[in-house]
UniProtKB/TrEMBL annotation:
Pfam families hit by this protein: Peptidase_C14
GO terms, molecular function: cysteine-type endopeptidase activity
InterPro entries: Metacaspase, Pept_C14_caspase
Gene Ontology biological process terms from the UniProt entry: proteolysis
Protein name: Peptidase C14 caspase domain-containing protein
Family the UniProt entry places it in: Belongs to the peptidase C14B family.
Domain of life: Eukaryota
PANTHER family in the cross-refs: METACASPASE-4, PEPTIDASE C14 CASPASE DOMAIN-CONTAINING PROTEIN
Organism: Triticum aestivum
Peptidase C14 caspase domain mapped to chain residues: 104-236
Amino acid sequence: MNCGRGPAPATMVRCRQCSASVAAPAGARAVQCAQCCCVTRVSGAGRQLSVMRPIPNFGGGRGKKRAVLVGIKYTKTRACELRGPINDVKCMRYLLTERFGFAICPVDSFQQGPILDDEINQAIVRPLVHGAKLHAIVDACHSATVLDLPYRCTFSKQYGCLRWMDERPLNGACKGTSGGKAVLISGSSNGKTQMSVLPEPNATIGALTHSFIKALECEPRTTYGHLLTSMRTTMRAGAGNCSLQGPVGCSIRKVANFSGVEEPQMSSACKFDINCEPFYM
């Protein structure tokens, strides 16, 4: 209780990414570092998730498939404003609607501060029952744990191939599904985010997004392992000219690595044979 003594003092929190000190206002559950943009939970400030409301009925879709596409430009942030995320969304929309029969859900809600990975896991991963499938493609910095999944598949320098890593929390908390399938395709980086303002604001696309779409255009019927390998080959070729199909891809000329992602990686609610399991959304 505050008896007329003014606002409570801010709490200093150490960033989990770069260890910088960040001031957390009283009552804040998470803070974002001004240096590396990483979001860190404030100790003891957990939040109860609200009861999930019925999913709205978005018309125009074929079957039961739905997709949410997000492109963040960091508008009006001077040197940090990005010029490719909107094209990422447009190209992904074309791929999903034309090739995979998805309906696009026009939802935009950022009203109550940063969304933490364990909240995302509890909200959309844990409820997945048998037969339900979730794929998340995230082309952004600090994206490897966005779904807080227990297993990660990445290229091992020691073995020279893709290998699974067990990242289940030591406290025994369950981060899997309720019988469904959850897969995240994101990127690993050296932590050096490459943000730049390019002279062609409407003619760029993110490197991870470009490699994902290109891999599926070249081989629609592929396995998870082959998909990651194809994406890695394209990304290692470096930024360059865009060669995507469709009305949107034809207008994009450059591939830019805004997020500093070096290689693709995959996280999952459970381990599986990536070289035999077919990729299907």
